[in-house]
Write the structure tokens for this entry.
Amino acid sequence: MPPAGSLTAEQLSFFDANGYLVLEPFSSEEDVRALRERMAELVAGIGGSNSTGSCEHHRMEMDDFYFKSGENISFFYEDKAFGDDGCLKQPKELSIRLVGHALHEHDPVFKKFSSSENISSIFSSLEYKRPVIIQSRYIFKQPGIGAEAIPHQDNTYLHTEPPSCIGLWLALEDATVSNGCLWAIPGSHKNGLKTQMIKDESGTYFDRTVPSYDQKEFVPLEVKSGGLVIIHGDLVHKSFENLSPTSRHAYVLHVVETKGCEWSKGNWLQRKIAPEALYVS
């Protein structure tokens, strides 16, 4: 039986036309449980109290702490998890927004999954020659406070020339309309990249006006736990705030091609090691 990521001609045609593809099922219950249990261990090991009132946590902001997170495992919290005094209003495990951005490099459980044949076979199917995982994220989408992800294209933030970013979005819990599943504009990847975020000596900015989109164009991408969504780097996608009583955990990988593609010097994520040196055959 071929790996779960081996794509058929029909699946490749759908991805080419729509800019996304849902593979369901993709990962086993054992793999999902291993990732979730390992993340629970990592969160439990964060310094500071498990109770409310701890002030030793970092907000989700595009600042120096964020920009230095590309080569390690860092923890970021929901803005709505904090009270007026700047301290958490609830336990840290119900307050954290995401963990990133190098789980796939530094943690053995996440590394094992990220380098599996199921993952690599996706890029063989897409005819990538030297794909590299450039970042990884564990997203919690906490019940009641999980922040929205505004409409965006992954190539805006993780740019190569020519563009090559592919997102892999693994559901670790059922992702539904009510708890903040992905939404996408089918075929929007064919319109090209609308804006690129630049980080240089003058600061961080977008090179063009960030466009607005009609909500009527988006379709929900509901997926069961263990399902995977493949996302083209130019696909416009988003997720709403999670106002439901259930979380929506997901593990997300972003992969770029390094053969014939150059990592942009203006990207926020700049590795001490060039991306192409991270390729493992």
Q: What stands out?
A: Residues 194 and 211 are 7 Å apart (CA to CA). The longest strand covers residues 131-139. Residues 29-44 form the longest helix (16 residues). Residues 49-53 have pLDDT under 50 and may be disordered.
